[in-house]
Amino acid sequence: MRPKTSPFWILRLAAALGAGLLAALGGSASAQQRVVPESHAAMKQSFAPVVKRAAPAVVNVYVRHKVQQRVSPIFDDPFFGRLFGERFGIPRERIQNSLGSGVLVSTDGVVVTAHHVIQGGDQAEIKVALADGREYPAELILKDAQTDLAVLRLDAKGVEFPSIGFADSDELEVGDLVLAIGDPFGVGQTVTSGIVSALARTKVNITDYQFFIQTDAAINPGNSGGALVDMDGLLVGINTAIFSKSGGSHGIGFAIPSNMVRLVVKSALTGSKVHRPWFGASLQQVTPDIADTLGLPAPTGALITNLHAKGPAARAGLVAGDVVTDVDDKPVQDPQAFEYRFATKGVGGEAKLGILRKGKQLTTTITLLAPIEEPPRDARALTGRHPLSGAKVANLSPAVAQELGAADDSRLGVVVIEVEERSPAARLGIRRGDIVVGINEEKIDTVAHLEVTLEIAGRGWRLAVERGGKVFNLAIQG
User: Are residues 395 and 294 in the same domain?
Assistant: First the structure.
């Protein structure tokens, strides 16, 4: 028969008994709470009290939306339309269903889930099922592809829901026990246990903000959007992806830290977009060669390369060649880690940056401001007989650059913000985030300039398009 005493009360008791010794040795509060079980009886205890506290707030998210399906691109040929009738090859409508998990983070029905779970959910029917079987329709109130997070609100006035509180994900340590709760493969709510295998994973290529908690708690398809909780039953992360060659769990799962989740939820409750502070500078990885040149003991930190003249970084006195080493005393390993640390500070107030300049360690204070939209974006959908038809473009500004994850500097330009499927631009391979640098050897600075240049180019275009810091040249005949 399972003992009713939770192991975590035993661990805390052990920690309390040793608190005096730890205090005398200068031990931290977090060190006092992390104690290896000292007896066989302690190791036989159950996670059940934690599950009872957290599991009622973990839900299933069902998304049902209509998609257009073509049998084959060959049916675009007008010959088949004349032969078989005008309706031949018209896209067929079908229903697509997706299933994921979510977490109730407030008693009034606010649910956070993964963005890829509800992708395409703007015109979709979304339902949320609680662990006790109740189902409610849900409204999408915010989606943020850059963090792979979305926020829903249940349509249930007057109902008080179970919810889960946020932990400070910066307090996690490698080796901490965690539980993953979700609905893998649609079999029903499932709990798996593991440890934090690694922190600050920044080379995963899942979202624009690369900074993940890695865990060996089993995470499988359907767990996306579910909860990663600590031993207090608090949310430390939202499960978002796994590393797998088979589609099943191989013991390497990734979760978005709760401090980022908290920022997105707060933004959802106060507006329609995520408000992130503007740094106003481009950053580069510190390589071993750069570290040797700068006199760094190890290749860590984020190297500033270009600054926006009106940006907060320039106003704070930063210059190209500075290396950012920490944000509010939290270490920065690379540019991705800096972007996470800086973004989770939110807009408003100040942050303290640790800077290495010419071998000297300095500190400076930077104001946490929203990015400016200068010049105005002037977004336009391009149409006509030219290779960029079907692309929606805008003037590049700090605000637009942040939305797209583009370089944060002061240059002018025109950036692609959307591409219509099966359009000339899509067939050419143009993507969201591409920057149109020039047409027919003429530099492009504004959307208005781009439109005029496309029209007067005649039947031939030589496009220069920047993607990922590299410029590609394309020659197209009309």
Answer: no
DSSP H/E element including 340: helix 335-343
Told to judge if 148 belongs to the known catalytic residues of this protein, a careful annotator would answer yes
Q: Are residues 176 and 238 in the same domain?
A: yes
| Sign of the torsion angle spanned by Cα atoms 101, 104, 109, 114 | negative
The residue annotated as part of the active site, out of 98, 101, 115, 148, is 148
Q: What 3-state class would DSSP assign to 229? A: strand
CATH of the domain at 455: 2.30.42.10
* Amino acid letter, residue 231: M
Give the pairing of strands 460-467 and 442-443.
unpaired
Q: Are residues 184 and 212 in the same domain?
A: yes
> Phi and psi dihedrals of 214, rounded to 5?
-100, 135
Residues 49 and 102: beta-carbon distance below 8 Å: no
Q: Is 116 a catalytic residue?
A: yes
CATH number of the domain that 53 lies in?
2.40.10.120
Do 77 and 152 fall into the same domain? yes
Three-class DSSP category at 141: strand
Q: Are 212 and 198 in contact (CB under 8 A)?
A: no
Instruction: Say whether both 181 and 327 belong to one domain.
Output: no
32 and 57 fall within a common domain = no
pLDDT digits (tens, 9 = 90+) for 3-15: 444 443 333 433 3
- Contact status, residue 413 vs residue 444, Cβ threshold 8 Å: yes
Beta bridge partners of 392: 381, 418
Q: Which domain holds residue 233?
A: 47-270
Inside any domain, residue 194: yes
| Same domain assignment for residues 95 and 143 | yes
Catalytic residue among 101, 169, 197, 224: 224
Q: How far apart are CA 177 and CA 193, in angstroms?
A: 7
The active-site residue, picked from 116, 169, 230, 386, is: 116
Question: CA–CA separation, 275 vs 344, rounded Å?
Answer: 10
Token pair 């040795």 is at which residue? 25
The 10s digit of each residue's pLDDT in 218-245 is 888 888 899 999 999 999 999 987 655 5
- Which residues are CB-contacts of 391 (< 8 A; sequence separation ≥ 6)? 381, 382, 416, 418, 419, 420, 423, 425, 430
Domain end among 270, 303, 332: 270
86 band by pLDDT with thresholds 50, 70 and 90: low
Does residue 275 lie in a domain region? no
Residues 293 and 201 in one domain: no
Q: What is the Cα–Cα distance from 210 to 167, expressed in whole angstroms?
A: 20
Q: Is 224 a catalytic residue?
A: yes
User: Which stretches does DSSP call E strand in 202-312?
Assistant: 212-215, 227-229, 235-242, 253-257, 281-285, 302-307
